[in-house]
Amino acid sequence: MIRRAWMAAAAVALTVGVTACQKRGGAASDKAGAKAMEGMPGMGMQGMSETERMADGATRGTAADTAGVPVDRAAASRLGITFARAAMRPLAQGSRAVGTLAYAEPRRQYVNARVMGWVEGLYADYTGKPVRKGDPLLAFYGPELLSAQEEYLSAKRLGDQSLATAARHRLTLWNIPEDQIELLDSTGKAQRTLLLRAPISGEIAEKMVSEGQAVQAGDNLFLIADRSLLWVDLAVFESDARLLRIGTSVSLTVDALPGRTYEGRVTFIHPGIDTTSRTLTGRVEVPNRDGQLRPGMYVTARLASAAGTRLSVPTGAVLPTGTRNIVFVNRGDGTFVPRDVQIGLRSDSLVEIATGLKAGDEVVASATYLLDSESNLAAAMQGLMLQMGMGLNMGGMQVRGDSEMKGMKMNGEDGEDEKGGDMKGMKMGEEKKQ
Predict the structure, then answer these.
(1) Is the dihedral of CA 51, 55, 60, 62 positive or negative?
(2) Which range, of 19-23, 115-119, 148-152, averages the lowest pLDDT?
(3) Nearest of 284, 288, 290 to residue 270 by alpha carbon
(4) Is 363:84 a contact under the CB 8 Å cutoff?
(5) pTM of the entire structure?
(6) pLDDT 10s digits, 313-336
(7) pLDDT, position 121
(8) What whole-number distance in Å separates Cα of residue 157 and Cα of residue 176?
(9) pLDDT at 46
């Protein structure tokens, strides 16, 4: 009986509460929601008044300013935040590319055997050895060479000038140096071995022969390369391909030689683009006057176009989000608001602003991510407040906190709470009548 009476009284009380809540207007609901927010842990912060101001601004349609962040200059300085102004500055577009030094192909030459024979003396005996034009490389014995010398001497002794000329020409075609033929004329005696000399000055880039080795006609014996001029093939991204022009000057730095800069120029541009890396290859000639540059060294090159005056800000002022570029601009009252901008050319320290700013606008030049996080927090708080305001007004029914339900305690199955106390604040009319 007591349980049924309690259930009936609770139903009556709940009905009365719902009716009273339905009589309250939407404005009262929003104010009560705001007061409830103040009582929530973590919501009674200093920035709550700023959130209310942003909510009012959003109502008036100033959504761009609601995410603004007021900046204390002294605190900003301690956090490493700096400021700059958009201004017209000389701006040259630059791009960096990388490559590897290599021998220039026109300055490489192979030395090979024109006839079959044997190497009986080797003078260029290790790779990398420097040689000058005309230096002996090896002493070569070949039966055909010996027969050609004997034929030449016989023709001279017989006075057959045409035969002697033909034999001499054959020795020349077999790459016998002129001084060896003159020695043959002066001594009148065939030489067992003849010297092969370096055709150009440079260094032995490759050595494919050893002393005593038998070689066949056409075998390559040495590769001589001149290092006074080197090539580097630069891989330039497709978006920067317009910077490549024949004759363009290029500044190069080498990791192995810190602090030194070399100047080169573009001499050739490959006709196609690498479809895998989406890069265009440009060849740069680099003079190596001091001989410090070596093939295989890793090179970083900087390509630059002609400078022009453009509206620009420091590179750190632009915060890319993936789909947009944002700059935080001083609204005029010390509050910095995010603004979408369109960027153009870039240099090492500046970026062009095509649209979104005007000359003289003050922007955050560094640590923009700090303001971005504050701006996102402010926008999130604004949305939260709006949602909380709407959520508290559920069809005119005001949801209240525990303070209004203070007197209600749920009893157990036996009509008593865990402590054995009675229900406080509730009078059961039916129980009194009984």
Answers:
(1) positive
(2) 19-23
(3) 284
(4) yes
(5) 0.55
(6) 988 889 888 888 989 898 888 888
(7) 92
(8) 21
(9) 40
Percent of the chain with pLDDT over 90: 30
Which residue in this structure is represented by tokens 């290092």?
227
Question: What pLDDT is attached to residue 39?
Answer: 42
Query: d(Cα 15, Cα 396) in Å, to the nearest integer?
Result: 14
- pLDDT value of residue 72: 79
- CA distance linking residue 343 with residue 351, whole number of Å: 7
Residue recorded with tokens 């500044």: 251
User: Three-state SS string across the chain, please?
Assistant: CHHHHHHHHHHHHHHHHHHHHHCCCHHHHHHHHHHHHHHCCCCCCCCHHHHHHHHHHHHHCCHHHHCCEECCHHHHHHCCCCEEECEEEEECCEEEEEEEEEECHHHEEEEECCCCEEEEEECCCCCCCEECCCCEEEEEECHHHHHHHHHHHHHHHHCCHHHHHHHHHHHHHCCCCHHHHHHHHHHCCCCCCEEEECCCCEEEEEECCCCCCEECCCCEEEEEECCCEEEEEEEEEHHHHHHCCCCCEEEEEECCEEEEEEEEEEEEEEEEEECCCCEEEEEEEEECCCCCCCCCCEEEEEEECCCEEEEEEEHHHCEECCCCEEEEEECCCCEEEEEECEEEEECCCEEEEEECCCCCCEEECCCHHHHHHHHHHHHHHHHHHHHHHHHHEECCEECCCCCCCCCCCCCCCCCCCCCCCCCCCCCCHHHHHC
CA–CA separation, 312 and 345 (whole Å): 9
Q: How far, in Å, are 11, 285, 326, 348 from residue 280 at the CA level?
A: 81, 17, 31, 21
pLDDT at 159: 85
Among 159-168, 201-210, 238-247, 412-421, the range scoring the smallest mean pLDDT is 412-421
**How would you label 163-198 residue by residue, b for 16+ Cβ within 10 Å and e otherwise?**
ebeebbebbeebbbbeebbeebeeeeebbebbbbbb
| pLDDT for the residue 380 | 60
Judged by average pLDDT, the poorest of 62-76, 78-92, 384-398 is 384-398
List of residues 6+ apart from 70 with CB closer than 8 A = 50, 334, 335, 336
* Two tokens, residue 62: 């100033």
Residue type present at position 332: G
